[in-house]
Amino acid sequence: MQGNDGSGPPNFTMRCHNGDHEEADLIDINDLQQFLATADFLSNYRMPSLISNMQAAATEVLKGRDFVLSTIQGAVRVRARVVTSIAELRAYFESLSESPKEEEYWKKKEKKKKNQSEEEDWMKKNKN
């Protein structure tokens, strides 16, 4: 086939309607074939791999986000346990200090200490 001027491949006319007037562009058959080949290549090979790569990247981002969220949630749970444990310990020690048995224990211990020091003083006096 020959072009419209008789020197090569034929030209095609593409008409675009813009409002009231038409624009006509001549398209060479080689350009058209190259365009179609490029479009075919991209749609069959490049676009699927691009989509696959984007999906893999998005999956990695979501995994990272999930890891960060689970780490934060774990830290919040640990903090809650620590706060609860501190509150329980505080309540326990407060209950001990209010206990009559606790007071008796400390009084007896103080009395024993006093008796021991009196005995040591008596032994020192009698030694000399």
* Mean pLDDT value: 76
Report strand order across the widest sheet.
1-2
Radius of gyration from CA coordinates: 46 Å
- What is the percent of helical residues? over 70%
- Sheet with the most strands, sense and barrel status: 2 strands, antiparallel
The fraction of residues in strands falls at: 5-15%
How many H/I helical runs?
2
Instruction: Supply the helix-strand structural class.
Output: alpha+beta
Total strands: the figure is 2
Low-confidence stretches: 20-24
Task: Write a concise synopsis of the structure shown.
The protein has 128 residues and is of the alpha+beta class. It is built from 2 helices and 2 strands; from the N terminus they run E-E-H-H.
Write the layout of secondary structure elements.
Blueprint: E1 11-18, E2 21-28, H1 29-98, H2 100-127
Antiparallel strand pairs: 1-2
Describe the structure.
The protein is α+β, with helices and mostly antiparallel strands and 128 residues long. Helix content is 77%, strand content 12%. The protein is built from two helices and two strands; from the N terminus they run ββαα. Strands 1-2 form a two-stranded antiparallel sheet. It is rod-shaped. Mean pLDDT is 76; it is low at 20-24.
